[in-house]
Design brief:
The chain has about 150 residues and is α+β, with helices and mostly antiparallel strands. The protein contains 3 helices and 6 strands; from the N terminus they run ααββαββββ. It has a 6-stranded mixed β-sheet with strand order 2-1-6-5-4-3, with helices on one face. The model has no long low-confidence stretch (mean pLDDT about 90).
Length: about 150
């Protein structure tokens, strides 16, 4: 009986450590997303999404495929640049090869003359694709500044 209990405790501890490691991988991916966005590496932002991903931007239809790519990398010249961006996860829960992540985000954009600070809330559904956590569903909306 003691051996069985010891094995059970070790299995649980190993499972919790594996779960923690996966949560850290998701946080790292979120940080990478922010870095790509701030560096203007829009193609790399798009590559962080699964092949069948959908985004749900505020006040817009659901976008996927080429529309998703164009949202992050619009044709033509951009006047606004994101200079600050970060996610503040409240909870990340992993269920096999899928996970959900929700929390808050904040950032700053500038066009050289004006600066805009913004913040909001988000929910991301992550999916492991080829062993890498990628964004499958991404919804966010801003919180109005007081």
């Amino acid at each position: 009986m003691r051996i069985t209990l010891t094995i059970l405790i070790l299995a649980l501890f190993t499972s919790l450590n594996a779960q923690d490691a996966e949560v850290e991988l998701i946080k790292s991916q979120a940080d990478q997303f922010s870095t790509y966005l701030m560096n203007g590496e829009r193609d790399k932002v798009v590559a962080m999404y699964t092949k069948d991903a959908k985004i749900f931007p505020s006040d817009r239809d659901i976008l996927e495929g080429e529309e998703l790519a164009n949202y992050w990398n619009p044709p033509g010249e951009r006047s606004w640049k994101t200079t600050k961006h970060r996610f503040m996860a409240v909870e990340i829960k992993i269920m096999g090869d899928e996970a959900y992540d929700y929390g808050y985000y904040e950032g700053t954009s500038t066009n050289g003359e004006q600066t805009s600070d913004w913040r909001g809330k988000y929910v991301v559904i992550w999916r492991k694709e080829d062993g890498v956590w990628k964004i499958y569903l991404d919804i966010w909306n801003r919180i109005k500044n007081d």
